[in-house]
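Table S2 (text version). Query chain:
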Amino acid sequence: MSQALFVHDWATEQLWVFCIGQIIGAIIAGVVYKSLSPEE
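Corresponding structure-token output:
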């Protein structure tokens, strides 16, 4: 992410994808884990 701040070109325009993508991936992983975990 720090490299994108130094480039100041196309990299900063796509920086939001890396931030939001990780959050969306974590949410999807939580939902999948919750659905596949055994009920107590």
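Notes on Table S2: Residues 15-36 form the longest helix (22 residues). The chain has a mean pLDDT of 83.
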